[in-house]
Amino acid sequence: MKVAVVKYNAGNICSVINALRRIGIEPLVTDSAADLAAADRIIFPGQGEAVNTMVYLHESGLGDIIRNLRQPVLGICIGQQLLCAHSEEGHTPCLGIFDSCVCRFPANSPTEGRIKVPQIGWNTIEDLRSPLFDGLKNGDFVYFVHSFYVPECAEAIAHTTYGGVTYASALHKGNFYATQFHPEKSGDTGLRILHNFIHLCHD
Amino acid sequence: MLAKRIIPCLDVKDGRTVKGINFVNLRDAGDPVELGKAYSEQGADELVFLDIAATHEGRKTFTDMVSRVAAAISIPFTVGGGIHELADVARLLEAGADKVSLNSAALRNPQLVNDIAARFGSQVCVAAIDARHDEDGWYCYVNGGRIRVERTLFDWAREVADRGAGEILFTSMDHDGVKQGFPNDALARLSDELSIPVIASGGAGAKEHFADAFRLGHADAALAASVFHFGEIKIPELKQYLRDEGICVRL
Asked: Complex ipTM, two decimals?
């Protein structure tokens, strides 16, 4: 099983590599079109900000490479947001794999008053509906750090609630999967999700 | 619902944890990696490692330790101590740390907070504030609490938040080590005035103190050292207690 991690300008990918090693995978970190095309599974991780990252993905040609991938791809955090149609962060058009758009958490919630942005910490994932979550149960905790989110939509495979907002905390469409949370930082629950992604049945 | 976080803090010198540590079933309680792993398995939500060495050699050993922690543990961890410039932050993040905490360095050079936020993102930057309740109010202290700075806790906290800090780690020098609870009034004011998470630090002596920090102090997370290291409070029991009290924690 060849697993590639997309190398680009968005932050710390060290923890993704460490987590994959803990489940017995030695990933290839690459931005080469040939290496990505040859991989069985691709992880598109990241921490960062949408505008500069999208500029980089366009200019480097990586954006088109990612759009055309046919094997299972897992976007994580900003990786998920970049796979969406559009982000409110800098009003940036994104890669458009998912139809959803990315919004910023409001400073005030209708039900809970002022909310802290970014959301930092462990929150639950609910309404799980994907083989990505085999072995998990609704209400399991995973680790989030984010200011922007994807509203509830048809592509959602998990939901999370923060500050009175229930949003899509994981997405799936075709060969593309994505999580807003960081499986690589979510203890054994997160390692199980990475394991499930690596072992997804895929034709 | 977002859980309240429980964070053990480990002091590290020359690659070894300091302070007496009384931990059962550990081959080597002086090894920060092994200790961190044990805490992670017990349900700690994050870990903090503070480098208390002051030497160049100690720094290098600490960076090696950060890499070993990152390879062994799949929960977030923060490192602090000896961070003076962006290059220190880059070195620790490259080694695998998720966040860095700045204390005196931020008060001496506040621009460093802006620079870290701009280069690595706010989520990386934890502003640690040591403060004491003097006769004229809550004031910040540096150099391990030896020197008073003419800034109040609340003004400085707001300033670092505006400069881009992602979280505030507030230690009350009056409460630290006394084991009589956290400074809940000051915590609540900080938490209510700021739009970033506040971590309560220093003062835990009993499980009830954590519940109070969350309920009365509106803290987002609570950090402690000795009560965990000496096994006076066990993390699984603490979390079960908090849940029974109706506080959302990750179990």
From this structure: 0.93
